[in-house]
Amino acid sequence: MAANERDANSLGDFAVALRRNGLTIPEERREIMRDAVEKMQALLKVLDDPLAYEDEPAVLPRYDLGAKR
Amino acid sequence: MSSAPLPTLAEAGRKIAAGELSPVALTEAALARAEALQPKLDAFIEITAERARAAARWAEKEIAGGRRRGPLHGIPYGLKDIYDAAGLRTTAHSRLLLDNVASADAETTARLEAAGMILIGKLATHEFATGGPAFDLPFPPAHNPWNTAHFTGGSSSGSGAAVAAGILPLAMGSDTGGSIRLPAAYCGTVGLKPTYGRVSRRGVAPLCYSLDTTGPLTWTVEDAALSLQVLAGYDPRDPGSAEVAVPDYTAALRDGVKGLRVGYCRAFNADGEVGAEQAATLDRAAQTLAKLGAEVREVALPPNAQFQACARTISHSESFAIHAKDLQERPELYARVTRERLTLGAFVSARQYVQAQRLRRILTRKVDALFESCDVLLTAVIPGPAPVLEETDDGPWRRQLPLASVFNVTGHPAMAQPCGFAANGLPLSAQFVGRHFDEATLLRVGHAYEQEAGWISKRPALATL
């Protein structure tokens, strides 16, 4: 099973994900939205490729730049 | 209506300094043109005539009294309606914010006001700077001045229309995935997305914290430089702001491109489904730069699909976090397209978001590596001329992989500017990209190309509107 298929919000759980997030979609738009989610997940498949431990996220706290409020 | 477009910032500044042009007369010309073209272009959400006239009188008095503040003093500008201006509504083109009156200026608004500029009005956008052109909102979408049946690009749609129509020499836009550069490209203007962190975002309605950038749309590259001079700088109250020195952006503007190294991302353009007309104009732009003495060679960017996986995962996640409560409690107030596109964020997992931010760092390093042997990159920003407005993609999932959001992912400064016209008379555009915080070289290359190519001499034929 691919990693994205295990994600709680994946395609198979379309209705569950909507309910969990408290969202509604008009009946006549449900298939179109479901198709959009499918296409999005297809594009995001590249994110399943494993990365090295040292590849850290781009967005990290920058205490020296702009973090002062 | 004045038959002539407003002069550029540089030209107006020179004339005002020489006493040949009055801020009051210039403001009246902008207001007259804005009012006359509004029924055709729908560029404005609100025209702030009374406020503009008062500011123009004050500017005129100051300048006459020998207190000219700088090159932008007494010149009109506009704000995309996600920027706060104290006392005015910031609607974000949405039913949700119809009564949202700003109590303070955005940092960028404050900087332009301090420079003595005259606010003419708040400009149309796509709802919350996302979604798409929508016909189920309280305000209509803007229309392209080159052909009003066509799309302006977005989301800084009114900004692109107002600058292209010669109503304003400067309009502020915001760019999360191309929203400055796309309307600039489709409307035939210059649009500069500065480096992430270069210009403050404080007081601008957020869409995606880690991708949002603010910047100017202008008619010329010189005007982009003059605008950035005022806008750039550290803002301690913007958590994304960077404390990096601001150079003189006009100092090297006329130094030409001789000896500069231009990396032409030709294969990447093909990956982006760029049409034949647009591809041919980019080839000619590369040839023009080579003729001017630049060293042009082809370079390879990583596959666009990787950039898009990052851009879409991050933007859908962050914008959904911002809008989740309203999507749950009053979804009917959004335009259909906005609601659907924002809802996609509910289907992105935490794992995907973190992976996207990790891949983002890798992609940024790869683009940085290109700058070891190049001073600027040249790529496409649009696949072809502006589509017909009524035929724009309004589904929840955008069909085409955009070329602009690549540099939101990496944070590099990028500028769209005209590079020709399609057979149907609509503008085509080139995108120049620079090193982080090196907008100066970007502007230098853009100015040299602009002067040689001469596209800025052609304006939309507004008399036929």
Short description:
The complex is a heterodimer of chains A (69) and B (465). Chain A is mainly α.
Detailed description of the structure:
- The complex is a heterodimer of chains A (about 70) and B (about 475).
- Chain A has helices at about 5, 15-20, 30-45.
- With about 70 residues, chain A is mostly helical.
- Chain A has a domain at about 5-50.
- The longest helix of chain A is centred in the middle third of the chain and has 14 residues, at about 30-45.
- Chain A is elongated, with a radius of gyration of 17 Å.
- Chain B has about 475 residues and is α/β, with parallel strands linked by helices.
- Chain B has 14 helices and eleven strands.
- Chain B has an eleven-stranded mixed sheet with strand order 1-3-2-4-6-5-10-11-9-7-8, sandwiched between helices.
- In chain B, helix 4 links the parallel strand 2 (about 75-80) and strand 3 (about 120-125).
- In chain B, helix 2 (about 25-40) runs antiparallel to helix 3 (about 50-65) and helix 5 packs parallel to helix 6.
- The radius of gyration of chain B is 20 Å and the shape is globular.
- The two termini of chain B are about 15 Å apart.
- Chains A and B meet through helix 2 and helix 3 of A and helix 10, helix 11 and helix 12 of B.
Largest sheet of chain A: none
Shape field of chain B: globular
Query: Low-confidence spans of chain A: pLDDT under 50, at least 5 residues?
Result: 1-11, 65-69
Residue-averaged pLDDT of chain A: 79
Walk across the major sheet of chain B and give the strand order.
1-3-2-4-6-5-10-11-9-7-8
Structural class of chain B: alpha/beta
Give the averaged pLDDT of chain B, no decimals: 96
Number of strands of chain B: 11
- Helix percentage range of chain A: 25-40%
Rg of chain A (CA only): 17 Å
Assembly type of the chains comes to heterodimer
Number of helices of chain A: 3
Structural class of chain A: mainly alpha
Largest contact between chains: A-B, 41 and 46 residues
